[in-house]
Amino acid sequence: MPYHLDEYLPDLDVPVRPNTTITGELAAGADVWSRIAGLFDEVADTVYGEPLPLIISGDCLTALGTVAGLQRSGLTPAVVWFDAHGDVQTLETTASGYPGGIALRLLCGYRPELIANRLGLRPVPEERVVLVDARDLDPPEVDYLRDAPIRQVAVSELGSATLPDGPIYLHVDLDVVDSADVPGLRFPAPGGPNLEAVVAAMGRVLDTGQVCSVGLACTWWPGHDAAAAIRERLREVVEAWA
Q1: Domain covering 3-241 assigned CATH 3.90.650.10 in the classification
Q2: Across the chain, what does the average pLDDT equal?
């Protein structure tokens, strides 16, 4: 899905060749939530009934459509969320107002009237969520994660013992990789794990046989050859799963 929020990105470079491209008519003059709701409903319809869907987009909010589609298929997936950021802000606490910064919080049931109710998306229980890395947290996110049952682990610590039971939606915001290895990131976060470490951790999750869907968030500006920098190594682990 070549969008960043409601911005169409026809030139978005992606590391895995898609079989289907999802586009849609966005409501003119509507707020961002109304504009992306229709797109995410198309994502959910595409995921519905599809074995092992891989969804590629330019942001993390697309995960809402993916999980809604998995739920429509009769699954109740847990979530393993790779990200340099927490994505657990709220509209009440965020300083930037960036919608993508609340993506995981929305999946866990925050403000369902914004997107979830429109998709029929049921909240993922916090105890069924593993947040991987999240090295760049805002103070409100630190406060929230201190008390929430979400499990936060380092990339190097992720393994079968740290994963929830049952089917898993594996979400990978590719800014989890150190920004020195991925050019053109929208929100670079230095000091992270290298590509090899991230791919190895993804492989450990995929090797469990629990993963029912993968989401790749290509959170970079088009035109910097980010996909080319990671394509070969990432494609190996994804194709081995699919």
Answers
A1: no
A2: 96
